[in-house]
Write a structure and sequence with these properties.
Length: 338
């Protein structure tokens, strides 16, 4: 095996061009670690925020990438065999503040934007699948976030009516597909009417065009509101999303594609309706390991769970890939092949 590898390294915060292709030493696995030959990795907005300088706890230079899929090259503790197909993911939202004290891939040690990465065994799952690398590369963090938000934070039940705020995000599309398969009615929002068919292909029953005041539209169609709301846009729409929830409903804020970190002049008594619960989902490595990736991969392979890959790039095109993510033009998960 060669002593060096191709990797995407960031030395200081900046635009997409801050990501540089370099040759760096291949990491060596020690006890409790797994050396992975990375075949593909998905892009995540937390990586965009880190690149922009919004993750002060992440030291530079750094190889970003909070997820990756590939094959095992070495596992000194014999937790995995050479050649095993595996996935790793940080587990966690765009905030991920818990990752400043936990050993999180792509934050506290070099991540998946490389030909090799060396995560802890506690952040790695073996997957028995025939899925191609571009599909497999799309699923670890996306499905962990969708699954955890739905079943850990929202405690989704069969028959619930779920509203996904930010329905064209990769997590939103995955959450809609999972919830629909689970037996729920699914509504979702988008700012673009032409994205409706894409959302419906993922199981969305009702598409709402987001003009910033979706609650009025939701209440006109469903006067009692919806039982569960998955908020992926973030603080810019959270207060309106709270008004969509039915009595006893739950709203979970997981995403921040609105690129605003905090609420201005937030008044809980004025913003949270009586009996409505507000929670968040950040997740961690334990949540990733608890996500049934094998079962979900089987559903994808059988065609019963739809995963929408928006665009596939080569690692040498990482600048273009980040630019597309920043411009929200992918229409699904962005995947990079090594």
């Amino acid at each position: 095996m060669a002593a060096v590898m191709k990797a995407v390294v960031i030395h200081k915060a900046g635009g997409p061009e801050a990501l540089q292709i370099e040759q760096i030493p291949i990491p060596k696995a020690s006890a409790g670690r797994v050396l992975m030959r990375v075949k593909a990795f998905g892009l995540n907005r937390s990586e965009l925020f880190t690149r922009q300088g919004h993750s002060p706890g992440v030291p530079f230079p750094r190889v970003l990438g909070i997820e990756a899929v590939g094959v095992v090259e070495d596992a000194p503790g014999n937790e995995f065999k050479k050649g095993d197909v595996v996935a790793t993911a940080m587990g966690g939202s765009v905030l991920g503040e818990n990752c400043f004290v936990l050993p999180c891939i792509g934050r506290m040690f070099d991540g998946g934007y490389a030909e090799y990465t060396c995560p802890p065994t506690t952040q790695v799952q073996k997957i028995e699948t025939s899925l191609d690398w571009k599909t497999l590369g799309a699923i670890p963090e996306m499905l962990e976030t969708a699954w955890g938000s739905l079943f850990r934070a929202l405690r989704l039940q069969k028959g619930d009516h779920l509203l996904v705020r930010g329905g064209t995000t990769s997590v939103g599309l995955a959450a809609a597909a999972i919830a629909k398969n689970f037996g729920c009615q699914v509504s979702a929002t988008t700012r673009r009417a032409d994205r409706g068919p894409m959302m419906q292909a993922s199981g969305v029953d009702n598409v709402f065009i987001d003009d910033g005041a979706v609650a009025k539209q939701v209440r006109q169609k469903f006067p009692k509101g919806v039982q569960k709301v998955l908020e992926l846009v973030g603080t810019t729409s959270l207060e309106d999303s709270l008004q969509c929830a039915a009595e006893g409903g739950v709203v979970c804020m997981t995403g921040m594609v609105g690129n605003k970190w905090a609420l201005d002049n937030f008044s809980p008594m004025g913003s949270i309706p009586t009996t409505v619960c507000l929670t968040t989902y950040a997740g961690d490595s334990e949540d990733f390991i608890a996500t049934p990736l094998n079962d979900l991969a089987k559903q994808i392979a059988s065609g019963t769970l739809r995963v929408q890959v928006g665009k596939v790039f080569n690692i040498d095109e990482i600048v273009e890939a980040h630019r597309m993510m920043e411009e929200n033009k992918a229409g699904g998960k962005i995947v990079v092949l090594t």
